Amino acid sequence: MDTPTNISLSSSIPISDSLEYKTVSVFLVLLVCGVGIIGNVMVVLVVFTTRHMRTPTNCYLVSLAIADLTVLVAAGLPNVSDSLTGTWIFGQAGCLGITYLQYLGINVSSCSITAFTVERYIAICHPMKAQTVCTVSRAKRIIAGVWIFTCVYCMLWLFLVDIQVGPDGHVQCGYRVKRELYLPIYLIDFAIFYVIPLLLAIVLYALIARILYLSPLPHQPDTSATTLRRSCRDTSEAARPGRQGRPKSALSSRKQVTKMLAVVVILFALLWMPYRTLVLINSFVSTPYLNAWFLLFCRTCIYANSAINPVIYNAMSQKFRLAFRGLYSCQRLEGNQRTQSAIQSGFVEKYKSIKEKI
């Protein structure tokens, strides 16, 4: 029986049954997935609840965050049960559904990165065209198209995996047909969702860097950008009373956003490289390389890629940093208001009871 390479599954090598492996595996997966789930949920919340954060670029970042959440939930969390029990416990429906969601999240994240890279290129290198092309409504339509296309494309996996039971009774979610027949699929996935996006990103970010660092930005009256900077300035001043907030220039703001998105792309390339390379090599060799510790390293890199993006936004974007703080402050304020309301209602009830006795 061929051993599957789905990212949620463990190796059948005996070392994966050791207490040391299970402890390290469960700890790493829970830590990375926990941080990633909280961070990506916060990204979605701040963009939906903060008006000045609803920009075309942030719409693509929300799509990326939802895709990363899908990867963490569909790939990371099942890995915990698989490491603890050493067998597949979710049945045939779980095998099909979880595998489908894994590849859906992976492919949508790649498409979202490509989309915001193209959006940044148009916004910076073709500012006049960006006035009509780089809009929130267009970004929403593109995101909807990406998700529809990827949902249809990933349906292929519903016919390629199934439950398999080994001679020792070990249950796995594995290949339905021979491993050699999956080579074209893996090559297409590798090209469409890894190689082509990275090559496109290299070219476009090189052109963006030439405009930002070697050529002056053409002057463009942009009232929406002025309004956005004023809104960010007001938010900054509200967050730091007593300080005079000074809005950044358009050039400085664009450099900051572009650097942040470039870091997202670079980490995507680096953290996905071990797994993509392993799958590609195993598709050609007669005996696949399935060392348990290396598979754990590959999976941890994938989960880390889905978890690290909110950390990058917080570290490199002042707007996201202030929005995260604002979300936290609103939650604390809401909690305090609920507490005060409960106390006040308690006093009212107590006063009424005393009055009735009198």
Automatic annotation (TrEMBL):
One of its GO terms (cellular component) is membrane. The keyword Membrane applies. This is Thyrotropin-releasing hormone receptor. GO terms for molecular function: thyrotropin-releasing hormone receptor activity. It is found in: Membrane. The chain crosses the membrane at residues 26-48, 60-80, 142-161, 181-208, 256-273, 293-315. Belongs to the G-protein coupled receptor 1 family. Keywords: G-protein coupled receptor, Membrane, Receptor, Transducer, Transmembrane, Transmembrane helix. It comes from the Eukaryota. Coiled coil: none annotated. Receptor for thyrotropin-releasing hormone (TRH). Upon ligand binding, this G-protein-coupled receptor triggers activation of the phosphatidylinositol (IP3)-calcium-protein kinase C (PKC) pathway. The keyword Membrane applies. InterPro entries: GPCR_Rhodpsn, GPCR_Rhodpsn_7TM, TRH_rcpt_1. Residues 39-313 form the G-protein coupled receptors family 1 profile domain.
